[in-house]
């Protein structure tokens, strides 16, 4: 597998892992399921595409078509992560709230307090802009570290 792809995939995994301790600092509890979920800080989508673009920029140069493709692809992914996908997540939240309101209006006598439905729409789809920026910064750092590590290995051989 090529080094740029390895870098991007490793960065995605790192970003997904980092969501767990970051969320633990916010809530006080560990939630290992976050590793397999979308949304949250940092954006693994942004981290992966930024790592790839950074690695390519350092390896091949910013004037190459390789970097242009990676940068454009990255911008589209990051825009989508904080735009369209975030809006879909907010819509899912509202639909879940409406479903709860309908259940309450039905007046089910067996329910004193409404318990959330088991099959709610996934609301954690997209990212806040700060989560996208956090992912992009993580990606640039790992892309640069990977490039320098590869360069150092080449010199030793």
From TrEMBL:
The keyword Transmembrane applies. Residues 81-108 form a coiled coil. Keywords: Coiled coil, Membrane, Transmembrane, Transmembrane helix. InterPro entries: DUF212. This is Hypothetical conserved protein. It comes from Geobacillus kaustophilus (strain HTA426). It comes from the Bacteria. The chain crosses the membrane at residues 132-150.
């Amino acid at each position: 597998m090529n080094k740029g792809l390895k870098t991007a995939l490793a960065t995605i995994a790192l970003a997904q892992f980092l969501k767990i301790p970051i969320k633990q600092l916010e809530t006080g509890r560990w939630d290992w399921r976050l590793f397999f979920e979308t949304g949250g800080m940092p954006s693994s989508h942004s981290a992966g595409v930024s790592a790839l673009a950074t690695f390519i920029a350092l390896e091949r140069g910013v004037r190459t078509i390789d970097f242009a493709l990676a940068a454009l692809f990255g911008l589209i992914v990051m825009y989508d992560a904080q735009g369209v996908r975030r809006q879909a997540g907010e819509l899912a939240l509202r639909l879940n709230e409406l479903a709860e309101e309908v259940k309450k209006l039905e007046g089910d006598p067996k329910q004193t307090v409404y318990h959330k439905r088991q099959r709610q729409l996934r609301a954690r789809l997209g990212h806040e802009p700060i989560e996208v920026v956090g992912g992009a910064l993580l990606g640039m750092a790992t892309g640069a570290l990977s490039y320098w590590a590869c360069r150092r290995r080449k010199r030793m051989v």
